[in-house]
Amino acid sequence: MQLTVRDRALADGLRAGQAAVDEGLLKATKSDVPFINEAARELTRTAGRRLRPLLVLLAARFGDPGAPGVVPAAVVVELTHLATHYHDGVRDETAVRPGARGPDANWDNTVAVLIGDFLFARASHILADLGPQAVRLQAEAFRRQVTGQILETAGPRDGRDPVEHHLEVLAGRTGALTAVSGRLGALVSGADPSAVDALARYGERLGMASHLADELATPTARRPTLPVLLLLAERVGAGAPERMDPEDRAGRADLADRELYELLTGPADRPGYAEAVARLRTHPVLDRAREETARQADAARAALSTLPDCPARAALESLCETVVRRADAVPPPEPGAPTAPSSSG
């Protein structure tokens, strides 16, 4: 994740730490099996923001950033993230070979699962050297991740608000690993217990905010996203009485919103799907999704209030601002523009 650090000593320390993490990832994914070696190492080279290792490195600044467990902890959380990425690709039927193009880009699901398992195994091997407390923390984070995935697959129970359900899913699927990133970084550096707890709370909310910002950038319905769920809430609400028949309540919703929702929840190759995604990008529900993203980022920033004022805290606060800016970068609806109208309008 892009981060501007004004303190030169911190910036230099983070660069050195990130280089050590990259080296640790290459070492951890080395295998005598050529296919595993190619697959796992390619993904580590194209992994994107490296948010979780960055959280470990910044959290360690509240203790001893040079402690021997800091870089291994950062490697562990990134390996776990990459393994989850593989498994999510199978669940979403989008397991794609990194860097591949054309009809041969898709991997067999079995291979994708096994590569993910390999990365989980390597993470566990490194984690064992960090001690039993670190193992327990990572195990709890993994439990929360899996629970979140189960909740997402099962869907909200009868009477549960789909938006609240979605946030609960994200707290597990995404927030659990960013929370343990902050917690492990502080723990292995010997930070004060209160700082460990604060950085875990920060990590969870920042992870959720970052994921919601991603959903704003790609608000499709291939899997539940906040913009689509907010659109659904408008579709079935429209000011109808709670006791009204669901079909009658849906009938009160704005026709344009109903058509948009039906297109978004249909197959991606359905005529009109691409246009529906473009319409959703300028729909008023995105403002509400931005508000929720900002709320999560504000909660992350608030978790830092008990920490000492220092360059590392400023950097963590800057990450919150980066996430909010990313969410705000999605173009809002312009006044008078021909967009799909809100059902409340």
Automatic annotation (TrEMBL):
Keywords: Magnesium, Metal-binding, Transferase. This is Polyprenyl synthetase. InterPro entries: Isoprenoid_synthase_dom_sf (IPR008949), Polyprenyl_synt (IPR000092). It comes from Streptomyces violaceusniger (strain Tu 4113). Belongs to the FPP/GGPP synthase family. GO terms for molecular function: metal ion binding; prenyltransferase activity. CDD domains: Trans_IPPS (cd00867). The keyword Metal-binding applies.
